[in-house]
Protein: Carbonyl reductase [NADPH] 3-like
Amino acid sequence: MSSKVAVVTGSNKGIGLSIVKGLCKRFTGIVYLTSRDIERGNNAIKDLRKQGLFPRYHQLDVTDRESVLKFKNYLQSKYGGIDILVNNAGVAVSEAYPNFEENQMIIDTNYKSILTIQELIFPLIRDNGRILNISSDCGHLSNIKNKYWIDRLSSRSLNMEDIQEFIDWFLKACESNTFRRDDIADDGSFAAYRVAKVALSAATILQQKELQTRNISVNSMHPGLVRTDMSRHIGFLSADEAAVTPLHLVLDAPDSLKGAYVWFDGKLIDWYNYNSDCYFKRSSYLQLLAEAGL
Structure:
């Protein structure tokens, strides 16, 4: 019988590392910690070993197709397939209004990389497997205020080409300096991150449809404001606390939970409700930074 295998991308620190820790404690199989930087990945492995946890390691840069292909070939030859995939790798910048090159990098890491993972790693997911895309409150549809894109992204006939055109629309507007801040919530702050995560949440719905016949569950979630490097260690949750819901989704959630957008506390959120206040609010985060003297 083949070994069960779980993979967490971007997991040498933060939420990803905490998910690896939880899987090592509860998952009856092999757990892979992956990272872009080999030294940081191996250091994380050493720290976990001191805690009596023994995940395996493989280098993985989700933005590098050759790196993803190498990992795919390794998994396929060694195990034939995998059972759990947590797409956690991501990046953000502290500037609310980055330049075009930074916007491109944010899109490539937080969304485009998922397309490579979908192409190369998804075929390895065994029947009845589970995929979790770590999104954000920036990934809720309420982050988009442009009526045309609200309608198109919420259409039941949505396809991957629509999502790509949404990405292209944003990047072209940034490059030509025609981006309108009122097209995105909160005066267009952190627009690239919002666009990338909305695209990821929308893609999750389509990925679920594609994998439905194999009873593979694909969900996305907002992990909450977590005290990690990405948030400048400001937040309501520790990384271990934030890992509770992701672990539930890949280990304990019913098979019927598919294509959902889940809040950090485990509640199911209507992703299509563009009038809700689920969108990320910069002012709340700035207040927390001020209170912390940052």
